[in-house]
């Protein structure tokens, strides 16, 4: 009796819900199109080391990861980077500023999933184009002299862009995922692990511990070939407090509680605080207030707070992605952001707080 399934039977079991498959460019091809030359690679490496020095307390400045919630228009993001660059230089005695250059958006349910996934903003999903735009922008941001900060969401895309990234994040929705913890263990830059949307900090602490050690997982190599990746473990993973669905966790008591969890886990007692998301209840007008309160803790001598995250763009607020009307230039299409002037004032206050702590 022939036990092999008949072709018609195979058609009933294989890729039943895949509409079509499209070839993906290889990481090497993309690197060749938008190369990171030796000088720029040196800048990325120096940026990562500078971030690690702040996280480890070797450098007493505050790390600030600031920029749009998501990049949907590379031109506006580059203009933002051009404005941020001189400010980063001016405030560099107190702040180490990296730019949020986020291309991947984890969604609570549904929504635009970021520029790599959908650069056309229309669901057409031209990932090859998305990767090209993302890498080109990351190289440009590096050329300007700013370390770039990205969230890593898709486990395949890091091979395309990670060499340009100075600081990475695993988001609140994926911090419990083994896939993301394994990925973090092999990433070359410091990785911030966010507390879960329901507020669980213990989950992020678990993620830091899990990513610190070697793992073996499947992925792709630089040629785009399937590969078994053996990682070394990432010693520079750290906690990011982002508040929760039920309220903020940037206040002194919450920070002390988080630091105690790190201490009990035998991890360095250092936290980055996200002034947006649950900490601002997604109200961009709350972000400067939150940042000021974080700054007050820093100025009062809190050594555990080593960084702050801000969502900021050229125009304040947010807009819906509406195909029937033109988008406002430089305004977020995901979470609401602080506008440029408020951002500059907020950065200045954070710088003063870092200097006060040093004094
Ligand atoms: O930072 C962006 C958003 O908070 C995140 O992607 C989740 O967004 P959503 O809850 O609107 O899906
Ligand atoms: C999605 C983000 O944050 P969180 O994971 O904290 O919701 C973000 O920073 O873009």
In CATH, the topology is named: TIM Barrel
Which ligands are bound? erythose-4-phosphate, phosphoenolpyruvate
Outline: globular
Q: Count the helices. How many? A: 11
Question: How many runs of DSSP E, i.e. beta strands?
Answer: 10
**Mind summarizing the main beta sheet?**
8 strands, parallel, barrel
What is the level 1 CATH name?
Alpha Beta
Describe the structure.
The chain has one domain (23-319, 333-358): TIM Barrel (Alpha-Beta Barrel), CATH 3.20.20.70. Strand 3, helix 6 (158-161) and strand 4 form a beta-alpha-beta unit. The protein is an alpha/beta fold and 359 residues long. The strands form two sheets. An eight-stranded parallel barrel has the order 1-2-3-4-5-8-9-10, surrounded by eight helices. A two-stranded antiparallel sheet has the order 6-7. The model has no long low-confidence stretch (mean pLDDT 97). The protein has helices at 7-11, 27-33, 38-55, 74-90, 127-144, 158-161, 178-186, 202-211, 252-264, 287-299, 340-358, and strands at 62-67, 95-100, 148-151, 167-170, 191-194, 216-220, 226-230, 237-241, 271-274, 305-311. The structure holds erythose-4-phosphate (E4P) and phosphoenolpyruvate (PEP).
Keywords:
globular, Aldolase_TIM, EC 2.5.1.54, 11 helices, eight-stranded parallel beta barrel, aromatic amino acid biosynthesis, two-stranded antiparallel sheet, binds phosphoenolpyruvate, binds erythose-4-phosphate, 359 residues, TIM Barrel, amino-acid biosynthesis, alpha/beta, DAHP_synth_1, 14% strand, 37% helix
């Amino acid at each position: 009796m022939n036990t092999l399934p008949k072709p018609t039977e195979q058609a009933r079991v294989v890729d039943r819900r895949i509409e079509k498959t499209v070839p993906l460019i290889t990481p090497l091809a993309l690197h060749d199109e938008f190369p990171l030359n030796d000088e720029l690679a040196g800048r990325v490496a120096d940026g990562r080391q500078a971030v690690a020095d702040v996280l480890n307390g070797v450098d007493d400045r505050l790390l600030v990861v600031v920029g749009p919630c998501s990049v949907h228009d590379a031109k506006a993001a580059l203009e933002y980077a051009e404005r941020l660059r001189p400010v980063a230089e001016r405030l560099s005695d107190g702040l180490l500023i990296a730019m949020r250059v986020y291309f991947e958006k984890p969604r609570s349910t549904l929504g635009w999933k970021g520029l790599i996934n959908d650069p056309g903003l229309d669901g057409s999903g031209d990932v090859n184009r998305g990767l090209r735009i993302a890498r080109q922008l990351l190289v440009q941001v590096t050329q300007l002299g700013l370390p770039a900060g990205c969230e890593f969401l898709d486990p395949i895309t890091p091979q395309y862009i990670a060499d340009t990234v100075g600081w990475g994040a695993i988001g609140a929705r994926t911090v419990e995922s083994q896939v993301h913890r394994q990925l973090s263990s092999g990433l070359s830059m410091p990785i911030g692990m966010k507390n879960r949307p329901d507020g669980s900090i213990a989950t992020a602490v678990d993620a830091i511990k899990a990513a610190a050690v070697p793992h073996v997982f499947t992925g792709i190599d630089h040629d785009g070939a399937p590969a078994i990746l053996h990682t070394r473990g990432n010693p520079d993973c750290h906690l990011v407090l982002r508040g929760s669905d039920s309220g903020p966790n940037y206040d002194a008591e919450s920070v002390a509680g988080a630091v105690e969890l790190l201490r009990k886990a035998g991890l360095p007692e250092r936290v980055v605080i996200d002034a947006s998301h649950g900490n601002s209840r997604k109200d961009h007008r709350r972000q400067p207030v939150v940042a000021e309160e974080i700054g007050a803790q820093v100025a009062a001598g809190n050594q555990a707070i080593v960084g702050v995250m801000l969502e900021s763009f050229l125009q304040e607020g947010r807009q819906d992605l509406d195909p029937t009307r033109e988008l406002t230039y430089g305004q977020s299409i995901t979470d609401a952001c602080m506008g440029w002037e408020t951002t500059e004032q907020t950065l200045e206050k954070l710088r003063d707080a870092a200097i006060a702590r040093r004094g």
